[in-house]
Write a structure and sequence with these properties.
This protein is an alpha+beta fold. The chain is built from 6 helices and 13 strands.
Length: 293
Amino acid sequence: MTSTGDDEPTTSERDHPTSARDQALRALLVRTVEQPSRRRRWRAGAIGGAVLSALAGGLVGGAVTAAAAPDPEAAAAQAGARAAVLGATQPSMHVVGEPRGVIGTGDGALRVGSVPTGAELLVWSLRCRSDGGSTSVGPASSRTSATCTTGRTINGSVRVADVEGADLTVRTDGGTAWTLSVGWVRTPPMPGPSAAQQYELADGVVTRSEYLAAFHRFQGCMTARGDSLGVVPESSLFVAYGVDDQDAGDRCGRAEFDEVSAAWQAEHPAPADDDGTWGAQPYDPAADPRYAG
């Protein structure tokens, strides 16, 4: 969704995600569970000569690759697990613990154990390694579904309160091969105002040049996050713009622009009879000598 306005969204309009304590990373508490009624197998990659367990309890059942002869596909699944988990959620999210990647065929299940301290979501990403029928992934409380075609991904997430102790299952045709990546994530704390923004506010006056400088930093931050604002006219009293990535807008705004913008608006309050066009009027520095600097 694109958000727009006569000026950027103010601090009071932004969401405030719950900050999570940045504890030491803990391992993902998940273990694989064999379902003997279906012919399929799990394989775990090997690192440093030891077969990776799929977290608490280790890998149970199935054909597991021996440490002496690690399976390249299984090793690749584990190596790519973190990137797959991050690709299935907001770019700003932080991984808690070490995601796990496993490969399998047909139905399968991962048992979710205790939630690591600070985690807010369990995220999964299943990549189809062959064509197949309808495939669904997730715990009973929240499943994502699609038809498996080679290379397709099926992503999903669930709040930790709805998943602890549950099974994350894969349901698909018996011959469908897949890679499943699973990890815990949390929302990082919102940033505080940057040193530059604090400096612009320090004397209690925000000038036009400071207002635009703060906006330019905000633009640069958004571009760095992959959501360029494009060409934004700067001739009006209040700069008008839109963002597609609201999370990036919240974070970049908080760091570089929100407080300066709020101060600038407070210095130029709309009259009581404003019809909503006050901020769109052309800025006239001659009529604003105190703040035009």
